[in-house]
Amino acid sequence: MRALNSIFAASFCLALSLLPAAAEEPEGAQAARSVIQSQLDAFRDEAIARAYTFAAPNIKRIFPTPDVFGRMVRNGYPMVWNPSDIEFLDAAPRGDVIIQRLRIVDQAGVPFIAEYAMRNVDGVWRIAGVEILKDNSFGA
């Protein structure tokens, strides 16, 4: 019986070692997700000045005030401004940024994939851009 247990244990360990290794999350991904969630919470609360604090300098150069920034998000990214559901997906390094993907469902039930470019600015993660793609994974 002891030999059988040893064989089972060895087989189990071998099987585990053959499984593909989970992709390692980039350093800072958890903190970057927290920043994204904080900005989404600020949009939900219509706290535009707070939402603006999470933008990277490149975004602030393009949209120099919280009001201008807020109008751009409200008009151009309604699924980000007022989502009905969000789900954080994978994060991956790309050059000097982390790309954090989210599934966002708008108020009409249309799913999107949002790719947030997160940049570390003086030790703090900031949102340097967002690309929105239609999520066709549900056949929508």
Identify the notable features of this structure and list them briefly:
140 residues; alpha+beta
Q: What features would you describe in this structure?
A:
It is a single chain. The protein is of the alpha+beta class and 140 residues long. Helix content is 42%, strand content 29%. The chain has a single domain, classed as Nuclear Transport Factor 2, Chain: A, CATH 3.10.450.50. The protein has helices at residues 2-18, 29-44, 48-52, 57-62, 66-76, 78-81, and strands at 85-94, 97-105, 111-121, 124-134. It has a four-stranded antiparallel beta sheet with strand order 1-2-3-4. Strand 2 (97-105) and strand 3 form a beta hairpin. The radius of gyration is 20 Å and the shape is globular. The termini are far apart. The model is unreliable at 4-22 (pLDDT under 50).
Quick summary of this structure?
The chain is built from six helices and four strands, in the order ααααααββββ.
Q: What class, by secondary structure content? A: alpha+beta
CATH topology: Nuclear Transport Factor 2, Chain: A
The description of the largest β-sheet is: 4 strands, antiparallel
Strand content: 25-35%
Number of helices: 6
**Percent helix range:** 40-55%
